[in-house]
Automatic annotation (TrEMBL):
InterPro entries: Asn/Gln-tRNA_amidoTrfase_suB/E, Asn/Gln-tRNA_Trfase_suB/E_cat, Asn/Gln_amidotransferase, Asn/Gln_tRNA_amidoTrase-B-like, GatB, GatB_C_1, GatB_Yqey_C_2, Gln-tRNA_amidoTrfase_suB_CS
Protein name in UniProt: Aspartyl/glutamyl-tRNA(Asn/Gln) amidotransferase subunit B
The species this protein was found in: Allisonella histaminiformans
Task performed by this protein: Allows the formation of correctly charged Asn-tRNA(Asn) or Gln-tRNA(Gln) through the transamidation of misacylated Asp-tRNA(Asn) or Glu-tRNA(Gln) in organisms which lack either or both of asparaginyl-tRNA or glutaminyl-tRNA synthetases. The reaction takes place in the presence of glutamine and ATP through an activated phospho-Asp-tRNA(Asn) or phospho-Glu-tRNA(Gln).
Family that this chain belongs to: Belongs to the GatB/GatE family. GatB subfamily.
Domain of life of the native organism: Bacteria
SMART domains in UniProt: GatB_Yqey (SM00845)
EC number of the protein: 6.3.5.-
Gene that produces this protein: gatB
Keywords: ATP-binding, Ligase, Nucleotide-binding, Protein biosynthesis, Transferase
Amino acid sequence: MKYEAVIGLEVHTELHTATKIFCNCKTSFGADPNTNVCPVCLGLPGVLPVLNKKVLEFAVRAGLALNCEISRFSKFDRKNYYYPDLPKNFQTSQFDLPICEHGYLDVEVDGEVSRIRITRAHMEEDAGKLVHHGSSITTADYSLVDYNRTGTPLLEIVSEPDMRSAKQAVAYMEKMRAILQYCGISDCRMEEGSLRCDANVSVRPVGQKELGTKTEIKNINSFKGVERAIEYEALRQAEILEAGGTIKQETRTWDENEGVTKSMRSKEEANDYRYFPEPDLVPFTVSDEYIENIRKTLPELPDARKARYMESYGLSAYDAAYVTSDKDRADFFEAMVKAGADAKEACNWLMGELAGKLSENGLEIKDSKVTPEAMAELLKLITKGTISGKIAKKIFPEMWETGKSAETIVKEQGLVQISDTGALEAMVDEAIAENPKAVADFKSGNKKAMGAMIGQIMKKSHGKANPRMVSGILIKKLQAL
């Protein structure tokens, strides 16, 4: 029997505010354990929370960018459960009256666009962080608790079960991350936990309308992990059903090292959390004027920026999607073009040499050792014919290591491209004389035979010969033979 996966995602993103959702503690990452805490976020007796108004603003901003309806009347609730990282034994969240509802995102996979509905997006406080001493949560000898993250403002964005593949789920998350970054409400660093994902996965026979029993995979912290975890879990469930078994509704964890999901506990239902209105926080209203003022501040979002790049710069859909999928990358690209770089060449270098150096050094593009302006200067030297693309690829690593400009390196090392027609013709004549077989092959109709001669000329000139001029002169002379 053939099965299909049914996938819904719960994306949690930490909002990029200076202080926590209900107190004045800092939200900075990397502080010593249990130093960014106070009686409010630790839930000590006698304290009262106060909503950080920036959290509400960011939630509305995200909701508008995700095509959601913004609730005019909303409130907070207590979600009751017991876990070591939750000092109050309840989480202040939203239940029946979330701030955002009924949104959607359009995602593209293999050329096919699908609309993924967003059920809701609600504000809540984050829990603390458990540090497990062992290879995984299921094998740890013991765990320590850091409460610094407790009370950090979260936006939980819940999708409908509209995804049918792991690739589609990853595309949805990547699109979500880009929008949140563009809106400036979260840095979305998965490695730091500011963007996390719980995946609800079930399978059913193809053609069946009823949903199967789902499992929830908790706290996946990389796009590759999301893809691998969903693929594994869907296959695991299909094999169980094919063998005549039944799926147990439970919460599972993803073990990155072993590449498997593992059972953690039985899955809770909403009534298990015993939700009730938070008595220490009054319900609040959001006016039409407030919403419209925030709407006016929304930036150009990824889809609009992609369309502009295709229209204004002539980028292909693939190239424009790559550049705009990360705000910092798009900003870097625009700075290169503004400094005079050709848009297509700028895109090629972003995808090639620069991406390679960033990956090699574990850096984000905003931390690049070569500025957009310096990159543009390098590309302009190619356009002017001062250097070849091959020489540029030799110069770039030195720019990265030394901080010197491309022009300085060219002058210091005498790397100016040979574009003198007389000198190039002499090189071409020599190559023709030394490669009679290639000449004969060319005259027989094998145009690729030119490649060996051009390669020889470039090698003898140490890459300095202008390859376009060499090709033109060579063709002219070969055709005249």
